[in-house]
Amino acid sequence: MSTAAKAAVRISMPTFIDSHAHLCDPAFDEDRDAAVQRLRDAGGIGVVCIGESIAAAERAAHLSASYPGFVFATAGVHPHDAADFDLDRDPAAIRELIARGAVAIGECGLDYHYDHSPRPMQRRAFAAQLELAKETNRPVVVHTRQADDDTAAMVAEAGAAGVRGVLHCFTGPRRVAEAALRVGWYVSFSGIVTFKKWDDDDLIRAVPDDRLLVESDSPYLAPVPNRGRRNEPAWVSFTVARVAAARGAEPDTIAAATRRNTIRLFGLSIPSESES
Q1: Residue ranges making up the domain that contains 129
Q2: E strands along 94-172, which residues?
Q3: Is the residue at 242 inside a domain?
Q4: At residue 9, does pLDDT exceed 50?
Q5: CA–CA separation, 21 vs 219, rounded Å?
Q6: Closest Cα partner for 97 from 57, 52, 68?
Q7: Using CA atoms, how far apart are residues 100 and 247, in angstroms rounded to an integer?
Q8: Is the pTM of this model over 0.85?
Q9: Residue 119 burial (10 A CB sphere; 0-12, 13-18, 19+)
Q10: CATH code, domain carrying 240
Q11: In a domain, 6, yes or no
């Protein structure tokens, strides 16, 4: 596609930010740069690249350095790996990555569905990263699955202490979202909302305009019409359209709101947005 043709396509589609992608996952090893270009071509003006382990965060930092003002890295330890969380080593590594430009801590949180790490160790690692967020004034990217009471309680306590964050790839229950929203947190929706089994548009509508994010969570959870394929940041456009339909809004409106919210939460500096 020519440069002029690409420009014409961008004019006709909403511009968006992917607030959560695992671009450093091995699934992208063969075409990572091409995936970034496809995101640009689809109207993406930025992507938050998640470091769900110290090793992944290092890779995310390198990718961010290759795409300044477009790819933004995070650093944290996923609840699946909480059993190996070292209270001395891992916070120190996260602090170093923040000094190098990581915009958030995470993905961290609680996962009582798989229980790959014992629950007390998950809570210990999550608490340490929430405390680190308070210390460094960075937001937190939170994974929660079947850990509703503990997630709501820990988020409420952290939020009351001034910690900011987002419940990523959220699917409910609503009371957990409400606990997060009460302390000024954000809620992010992924391609799951396009699936046939999705039946909770009320949850999508419950999130205020200024607390709403969208994400790919790629390479996972490809939205319809690409269900079953490796997910791409470019396909957030389908999630934007579905969220807009659920809220009775135009895709442009949702894309603009989620852009603003992502920039605000993570403190992003995006040249294309500041120039618009």
Answers
A1: 14-267
A2: 105-111, 140-145, 165-167
A3: yes
A4: no
A5: 7
A6: 57
A7: 38
A8: yes
A9: middle
A10: 3.20.20.140
A11: no
